[in-house]
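Fold sample X.
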Amino acid sequence: MATPLTFERYTGNWRGSYEGWLMTTKTFGLKMPKTLPGLGNFYMAGQWVEPGGGLPPAAISGRNAVRKICKKDGKRFRTIRDWSLN
C-alpha cells in the first residue's frame, strides 16, 4: 500500500502529494508562468505548473513547453499519433 510518505520517498513530492494544485473556483483556468524573468531558454513543465496536477496535465505541460520552444526557434510544431499504441 502506498502512503503519502511512500510518494514523498520515491518522488520527492512535498508531503507525498500525488497531484500539484487543488482545483478550486479560484484556480480553475489559472495560467501560471512557465518561464522565469532573467533566465533565458528556461521553460517549466510538470504537475506543479498546472492547476489540478497529476499525470495528464503534466504531459500536456511538457507538450506545450516544446510547442513554445518550436515557436521561438521558428520551427513548425508537429505531432504524430501512433495508433499502434492503442
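Fold sample Y, listed below.
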Amino acid sequence: MSRRCFVTGNWKMNKTVAEATALVRELRGLVSMVRDRVEVAVAPPFTALYPVAKALEDSNIALAAQTCHAEPSGAFTGEVSAPMLKEVGCSWVILGHSERRQFFGETDATVNRKIAATVKAGLLPIICVGETLQEREANKTLEVVTTQVKGALAGFAANPAFVIAYEPVWAIGTGKTATSRQAQEVHAHIRQVVGGLWGQDTAAQVRIQYGGSVKGDNAAELLGQPDIDGALVGGASLKAADFAAIIKARA
C-alpha cells in the first residue's frame, strides 16, 4: 500500500516570531512543487503559531504544535490546550517527544491522555517513541518501543490517520543516526505492533516517521526504506534550504 511521505519540522525552543515567519515564507517557495507527493508540516514554538499560520495561508505546509495539555481548560499555569491549538490553525500535535519525557516527566499514560485530548479537539497526533542508548545497548529497543506504542494507543479504535515517529533518543541532536537497516527494523516492528492492536489493514496505512539527526545527505536512504514514511526533523528544519533538501529527497 502506498503511504504519502510526511515530513515534519520540530523547531523546539527556537525562533522569534520574526524569524519564524521569515523561515516559512522562504520555505513556501522551496517546497511548493512537492504538494502532491510529500506532506509537510512545521512545529514552531507556541508564541509563533498564529503568525506562522497566517504566513502559511494558501500553502501546502501544515501547522503542528510541539505538545498540549490533556485538559481542554483549567488552572494549569503555563500550559496550552488542544482546543486553543485548533483555534490558531494547527492540524497536528507532536506528543511524547523524548525531550518531553526526559525533562518534563511525560509517561506513556500522560501521552495517552494527550492523544485523547488532541483527537477530541479535531487534531491529529504525531506520537513519538524510542529508546535510550542504554536501552539499545541492553538489546531492549523492541521491548521499549512496543511498550510505548501499546501505552499510547491503549483504548483507541483503529485510526489510520494517526502518525507514529520513531526517534532513537541516542540519535537526537547528537549527529549520530541509526543506519537505514536499524531504522527499518524498528519501523517494521512498530507496524507489526500496530497490526496486533488495530489489524494489518490499518497498520498498512499508518505512517511511521523517522526522527534522529535526519539531514539532506542521509534522507534519501532513510526515506527509501519500505516502512519509513517520512521524517520528524529537528535541527535541520531550522534552515529553509536544509529542510527543503530533506523534503525533496523523497519527492
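Sample Y note: The chain is about 40% helix and 15% strand.
Also: The mean pLDDT is 95.
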